[in-house]
């Protein structure tokens, strides 16, 4: 079973704060993804990457930056957090993009006050 | 762009009854891949099943779905719901190589005794 870990699991910050969410996968997967999950909207793709140094823009990228430092590590950065970014964030990884299973991490719950 | 529509936001049913969750999609790609992911409370989303060829049924854990390109649908069905099926279900679409998944808004299923 593929392993994806996320940290922190819970985070509270204030409006305008700086937040970094971390994700690590140990499955030698090429692709990694950041999603946010909101009631009524489901899972929405923020950014994804197909290797170290690569970044692809997802469907809801505004207000988010991301960086893939190694094959294992993918970070999501909120430099000026806003209450609209309060959400449950999931990281996922897969071997290839289209047919392969995506394996999700446990999620990070972020509250922006 | 691609889109996935799940018409039911919430489905409540009694244990033992059949369940069907609707999923339709829009894409210009002629050979899309469709997926159902399930998200149990306090767990990570995980793959339930994925599409095969057109009009071929795929099954897993008592659930089944058939990709119908003629109607752009990939409905999820189970003949007899169990209490443990209570979860959030996502339909997702991949249009092909080098594209990420597009998720629907999700259907929450509550199975009552």
Describe the structure.
The complex is a heterodimer of chains A (113) and B (113). Chain A is an all-beta fold. Helix content of chain A is 0%, strand content 51%. Chain A has one domain (4-112): Immunoglobulin-like, CATH 2.60.40. Chain A is built from no helices and 11 strands. The N and C termini of chain A lie far apart (36 Å). The model of chain B has no long low-confidence stretch (mean pLDDT 93). Chain B has one domain (3-112): Immunoglobulins (Immunoglobulin-like, Sandwich). The radius of gyration of chain B is 14 Å and the shape is globular. Chain B contains no helices and 12 strands. Chain B has 113 residues and is an all-beta fold. In chain B, strand 7 and strand 8 (63-66) form a beta hairpin. The chains are: A mainly beta (113), B mainly beta (113).
Short description:
The complex is a heterodimer of chains A (113) and B (113). Chain A is an all-beta fold.
Number of strands of chain B: 12
> What is the helical fraction of chain B, as a range of percent?
under 10%
Main beta-sheet annotation of chain A: 7 strands, mixed
For the termini of chain B, the CA-CA separation is: 41 Å
The amount of beta strand of chain B, in percent, is over 45%
What CATH architecture of chain B would you give?
Sandwich
| Low-confidence spans of chain A | none
Mean pLDDT, all residues of chain B: 93
CATH class of chain A: Mainly Beta
Oligomer: heterodimer
CATH topology of chain A: Immunoglobulin-like
SSE order of chain B: EEEEEEEEEEEE
CATH topology of chain B: Immunoglobulin-like
Report the span from N to C terminus of chain A.
Answer: 36 Å
Low-confidence stretches of chain B: none
Which band does the percent of strand residues of chain A land in? over 45%
Keywords, separated by commas or semicolons:
heterodimer; A: about 110 residues; mainly beta; Immunoglobulin-like; four-stranded antiparallel sheet; 11 strands; about 0% helix; B: about 110 residues
């Amino acid at each position: 079973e593929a392993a994806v870990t996320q940290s922190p699991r819970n985070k509270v910050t204030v409006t305008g704060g700086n937040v970094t969410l971390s994700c690590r996968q140990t499955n030698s997967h090429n692709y990694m993804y950041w999603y946010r999950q909101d009631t009524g909207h489901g899972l929405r793709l923020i950014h994804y990457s197909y290797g170290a140094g690569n970044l692809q823009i997802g469907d809801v990228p505004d207000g988010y930056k991301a960086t893939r430092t190694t094959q294992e590590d993918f970070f999501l950065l909120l430099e000026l957090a806003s209450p609209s970014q309060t959400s449950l964030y999931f990281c996922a990884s897969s071997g290839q993009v289209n047919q392969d299973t995506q394996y999700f991490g446990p999620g990070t719950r972020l509250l922006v006050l | 762009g691609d889109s996935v529509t799940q018409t039911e936001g919430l489905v409540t049913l009694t244990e033992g009854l059949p369940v069907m969750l609707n999923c339709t999609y829009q894409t210009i790609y002629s050979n899309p891949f469709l997926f159902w992911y399930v998200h149990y409370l306090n767990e990570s989303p995980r793959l339930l099943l994925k599409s095969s060829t057109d009009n071929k049924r795929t099954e897993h854990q008592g659930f089944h779905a058939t990709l119908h390109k003629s109607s752009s649908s990939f409905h999820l069905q189970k003949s007899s719901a169990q209490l443990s099926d209570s979860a959030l279900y996502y339909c997702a679409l991949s249009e092909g190589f080098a594209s990420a998944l597009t998720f629907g808004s999700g259907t929450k299923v509550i199975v009552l005794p």
